[in-house]
Input
Amino acid sequence: MWEYSEKVQEHFFSPRNAGAVEDANATGDVGSLACGDALRLTLKVNPETDVILDAGFQTFGCGSAIASSSALTEIIKGKTLDEALKVTNQEIADYLDGLPPEKMHCSVMGREALQAAIANYRGEEWKDDHEEGALVCKCFAVDSTLIENTIRDNGLTTVEDVVNFTKAGGGCSACHEGIEEVLTKVLAEEGKSFNPAARSVAVAMPAAPAAPAKMTNIQRIRRIETVLESIRPTLQRDHGDVELVDIDGKNVYVNMKGACSGCQMAAVTLEGIQERIIDELGEFVRVLPAQAMPKAERAYG
Amino acid sequence: MTTDTDIQGIYFDNNATTMVDPEVVEAMLPFFTEQFGNPSSMHLFGNKVGFAIKKARGQIQELLGAELDSEIVFTSCGTESDSTAILSALKAQPDRKEIITTVVEHPAVLALCEHLEKDGYKVHYLKVDGKGRLDLDAYREALSDQVAIVSVMWANNETGTLFPVLEMAEMAKAAGVLFHTDAVQAVGKVPIDLKNSAIDMLSLSGHKLHAPKGIGVLYVRRNTRFRPLLRGGHQERGRRAGTENTASIVALGKACEMALEHMSQEQTTVRALRDRLEQGILEAVPYSFVTGDPDNRLPNTANIAFEYIEGEAILLLLNKLGIAASSGSACTSGSLEPSHVMRAMGIPYTAAHGTTRFSLSRYNTMDEVERVIQAVPPIVAQLRKLSPYWGANGPVEEPGKAFAPAYA
Output
């Protein structure tokens, strides 16, 4: 049985805004029958103000699909279309106090139904911009299609690469066999074979790590900041963040913030950050949590 | 997940697992305490346990109608039995690189076969028709001296549909091919007489017939060429090393003895409960139908497709009323496709996702059946009201055209 939050259960057992809106002037139909989830969203929009006066849903789907649909309609009612378009699937999931990783696609479906309905209202053609594959990494809800595309786009060759680029496999590591299978398949398309002993792509690329031996302190700090900037969006997707606290020789001290602080995955994340900084600087550094700073510095710093 | 009521739950999910019978529990308990010896030991502590295992082996032999008790090999579960049987056949006949099985097998067999394909084995997956039945001509064509083993389930776990394993085993024998059957769902529900069959190996699982989880059996006909999965100690005559799970073995023996006593009850009482349940629901719920082969299936299983709604939602609402069943929808399994069994029978997506399996046991009552018959129609109606395929009083006209969502 799935672990559904009280909020999901409540929206499933007593859904809000079920059924089609009368005199609707916007309709969005999305979903996949094969997957067993499909949603029709109907909206009544005030043509003068673009405000969503009423929203209703009809859903063929599981408990969380129905709950996500219900939550979506509650969130967007009273918003203008432009405001509504800013609603992310994470907001829908948050509204329900979270969804199991296997069910995050239900919230994605809600957001896409909204996009489709607004496109329909505006007389535009809406095209689905993502497809979904089988769930590979359950820790971080990463599916095979995302992994395949990331492998192709970045020329990845190792499980380690996939972990660094997609987070898939960065948790319990039980899906590494699955990741190897995806790698084998994608590499085969290019006539290559998967080699478990291959070096990860970041190390194999000669250009990047060939940093000048002598970097000024400022240059060094900036490059570390650049790496952190590039990682930040990934962490923020999970409601976390990272900030640079101090650099002391080979030791880089960072603060894990938001959901990242105290997360059991923090150590894994630090390792990932460390690897990226090493790649960028071309020298070995150790990334440590700020709590690990020598006491005196912490007290006076 | 909690239920609304404090009423006693209704358990209609016996194909998933069963309650351990109190008498079975009673039989096994001493083997955790005073009867703790290792049956391999020479002293009295071990000796008595050894005799208890021998008795259990005999009880299982009797239920299966096996010729000898030495044909019973204890394993940890049905999956281990299936893997042992198939891998043994491949190992013993290294020149044979083909396997015959069906598209509707349990993952214990299917996933193994798919894995073996990666290792270069060729697997023939026999197809089924709309009622889940095999084409024996296609089977006959696939049989050859290249085939190491045929593995075909006795009864399907989702629909209860029975396969003609006795006939198929004879055909395999005539072709000189080993025959294994995953009988996990059939043992205890249908009479079995292995000594008068051509079946070489058979898997069973304790927890499907009121024994505990963690105990299984592989029947291996005498003189069958066999290669163990686990090597080590001499337990099970060297065919399955590892210290015996004595308490569960004793429990399985007791459960098999009780299953034999109640065999006629499965065919009469349980069947009558199932038939009433099915008839009651089909009568009250429009656009619902039975999947599988109603004329040839397990007496305890009813698999009903409720069109235009999704199974997980049905289960959650049933659960709220304390009713336990299961579904073939994609969502209940965490996969992206509905049950492979429903897909194989060509059940359309709008119905496959709404398939709901009710599987009964001799511990269920007619009163429970009537309560479920009352509970189901409002749940289906409630979900259909939410469905984009459903209009005011029935499915919308041409549902496939009226609602054709963009893939998202």
Observations:
- Residues 203-212, 297-301 of chain A have pLDDT under 50 and may be disordered.
- Chain A touches chain B through 47 residues (CB under 8 Å).
- The CA atoms of residues 210 and 282 of chain A lie 6 Å apart.
- The domain at 217-300 of chain A is CATH 3.30.300.130 (GMP Synthetase; Chain A, domain 3).
